[in-house]
Amino acid sequence: MSKEITTKEQIIEYILAELEKKIAPVDFGDFFMQIGPSFGIDNFRNLLDELYQQGYLTKLEQPGRIVPSLGIRTLDLRYGISLKGIEYLKQINNNMDSNPPKDMIDVFVTYSWESEEHNEKIIAFTNFLRDNGFNAKMDKMIIQEETAKDFKVMMHKAMTDYRKVVVVLSSGYKEKAEQFKGGVGNEYTLILKDIEENPNKYILVSFEGHKKEIVPLFFKDREIINLSENSEEEKRKLFAKLLDKKLYQFVEVADKLPEITPKVTPSLFSEKEDVLDEIKLNISSGSASYFAKRLKNIDIDLSLSFKNISQNTLTEYSIEVYYPKNTLSFEVDGRIEDEYKIVTIDETTRLFSQQTKSINLEKLILRSYNITQLIDKEIIIKIYTDFGVYQKHFPLNEFNINDFDGRETKLSVDLFNLSDY
Predict the structure, then answer these.
(1) Which DSSP state fits 24?
(2) 384, 381, 379, 378: which is closest to 392 by C-alpha?
(3) What does the radius of gyration of the chain's CA atoms come to, in whole angstroms?
(4) 3-class SS at 138?
C-alpha cells in the first residue's frame, strides 16, 4: 500500500480508487490479498458489504466450486465500483482541488463518569481543546450525534480512528480500571494492548495533581500532565503532545513574589444599616470568531462593581457568582448546583465608606452549538457581608455586545451561525 491510511474515510477512498481501475468486478479473495490483509478478512468483508449497502459498490454472488473433503460448496463473491461510487470519488477530488483540507487532529477524551462537577469539567475541557483547533470529542457529544450508540463500539473506534486519546485520571477511573469494571475496564484493557506499540497516541492528564490515588497500576511510570492549576507550561506540554512536537522550554523566573495580605477583623454593623448599593455587571465583547458574518463563538469580559453606602469601613466580604453551566473554561474551579456553576471570590481588601469596588470576573464563553440552551439563562451575583446577603440577577438576553459590523446590539440567537447544529 503506497499511501498512509489512518481513518475509515481514507480506507473507503482507497478501496473505491482501486476498484475504479478494474474493467470487471474483482474476485473477493484476490482483492483482499492485494490491499486488505492488514485490515483482517472479516473487517474487510464487512466494510465491502457496508459500501454495497450504501450503493458505492456492485456485488456478484453465486455458488462456487465444491470442496470434496468437506462436502460443501464455496461462495464466489466479486465486487466492482458503481456509478455512485465513481461520483463519490469525483466529489472528493473536486473538494481537494478547490478546498485543501485542514490538517485536523482528531482527539477523543475519555474519563470515568463521577460527580456532576467532574463531568462538567470534562465538557469544559473538551470545549477548550476544540477552541484551540483540535477536533476533540467525548462520549456525551457522540451520543448526542448518534442515538443508540454501542459503548464498546464507540471505545473501539476511539482506539482505532482517533489520532490522539486523552485519558483524564481520577480516583474513580483508577478503581474501575484496576478492577476491569464497566466501560472504563474495557477501555483500559484496549489501551494496555496498544500503548506499548503507540505510546505517543495516549496522553494522561489530571485535574487533581500527581496523586497516587488516581493513577492505575500500569500507568504509574508514564508522564501525567497536571491541569489542576492554570499553568501555561502544562498547557504547552499538552499541546506539544497533541501536535507531536518536541518542546524544551522553561518559563522565566517572575520578577515579583506573591504578596500576602493579612486578614482584618471585620467591622460591626447595625442590623438596620444598609451597606451595599449600585451593584452592576459591566459587559464588553472579547475575542470572537465568525462564519458568514455570524458568530461561531464569543468571549464576553465581565466585571462586577458595587458601592459601600454605609458610614463604616467594610473589611471582609465574600462573593458568589452563578454562571450558567458550560460557559466557563475548564480551568475555572467551582461547585455545580442545578443549572449553574458557582465560583466564590473571597475579598480581604477594605472598602471604605462611599467607595466603589470593581472586580474582574471569569470570562463568559458562548458558542453557536449551545447558545439556544443558554440565551434565557442569567448570571446571579450574591455578596455576603456581616450585615446580610445582597443578590442581583443579570439575564444574558439583556447583555449588549458588538455584532460583526461593530454595532452594539442585544445578545440573541440570531447573531450566531446555527447552520451546522
Answers:
(1) S
(2) 381
(3) 29
(4) strand
Place of cell 458489504: 49
How far apart are the C-alpha atoms of 388 and 269, rounded to whole Å?
A: 10
Euclidean distance between the first and the last CA atom of the chain, given in angstroms as a whole number:
37
Residue whose C-alpha is closest to residue 132's, from 207, 233, 240: 240
Residues pairing with 282 in the sheet:
303
3-state secondary structure of 233: helix
Residue with cell 474493467: 23
Select from 378, 377, 380, 374 the least CA-distant residue to 413. 374
Rounded-to-integer distance, Cα 198 and Cα 192, Å: 10
Q: Which residues pair with 335 in a beta bridge?
A: 342
Run of H or E residues at 160: helix 151-161
**The C-alpha cell of 35 is what?**
490491499
Decide: 159 and 124 in contact? Cβ < 8 Å: no
**Which of 417, 148, 378 is CA-nearest to residue 298?**
417
pLDDT at residue 150 tops 70: no
| Inter-residue contact 375 to 415 (CB < 8 Å) | no
Q: How far apart are CA 239 and CA 116, in angstroms?
A: 26
Q: Which three cell numbers stand for residue 369?
A: 452549538
Enter the C-alpha cell of residue 116.
456532576
CA 81 to each of CA 13, 26, 45, 50, 122: distance values in angstroms, whole numbers, following the listed order: 11, 10, 15, 13, 43
Q: Express each pLDDT in 325-355 by its tens digit.
A: 989 988 888 999 989 999 998 877 889 989 9
Which residue shows C-alpha cell 463500539?
153
Type of residue found at 303 = S
Instruction: Give the model's pLDDT for residue 98.
Output: 47
CA distances from 356 to 62, 349, 374 (A): 86, 12, 31
Of 282, 368, 285, 377, which Cα lies nearest the Cα of 325? 377
Q: 294-308 and 356-360: which strand pairing? A: antiparallel
